[in-house]
Amino acid sequence: MKKLFPAVLALLMLLMPLPVMAEGCLPRALTADEAAAANLFLSNFTETGIRSCSSYSDDMVLVDFAHDHMWFNSQSSYEYGEYSRGNNCRVSDDRIQTIIDKYFYDSYPVDLSETRFDYIDGYYYHCETGGWTSCGFAHAVSICPIGDNQYFVLFYIYGGGNHWENSILSASTEEIEALYGAPGGCGSALIYAEDLADRSTYKMISYSAA
User: Fold this and answer.
1) DSSP state of 196
2) Domain segments of the chain: what residues?
3) Among 1, 77, 189, 197, which residue's beta carbon has the most beta carbons within 10 A?
């Protein structure tokens, strides 16, 4: 299993956008703060299990990402009760657009009703069974600047199905694998960041994970 991932990353390098392959474009050596910020930003995507998204994804992709992000990071936003259609959990739509605007580059207004959940009168409903688990956190292994505050990132995904703390996001590959073993996935992303050490300046342009 472990031998498979270098090959997968090599394939991702072959699929890298042409500007990244330009002469003189090399991966950047990250400071500890930059690595932690990049891993935290990417982990907001890996933990939900989303496979691909971009600034111009269909509304449903963006709405459901925002919903799932709330589930993993703000469970106090959810209400429980006996609702229609057999649902027992709901959350308001009032933060969906804000989350999309926060995480995506050049975001646009979405149709909040486009979702995989039951959407009734401004709430998303589902039947909660306690089966949600994090799909893992990201560990960037290569960040290559391509100009205009944009970076091409290759990353591993560790810890799927496990509880993890943000402190692990600044650990080395060796430290992570001592705790979680080989990565359970990998991916690539094109991100925008005005300051790699400041996660609040990050925006997702395109994302893909396997």
Assistant:
1) T
2) 4-47+134-209, 56-126
3) 189
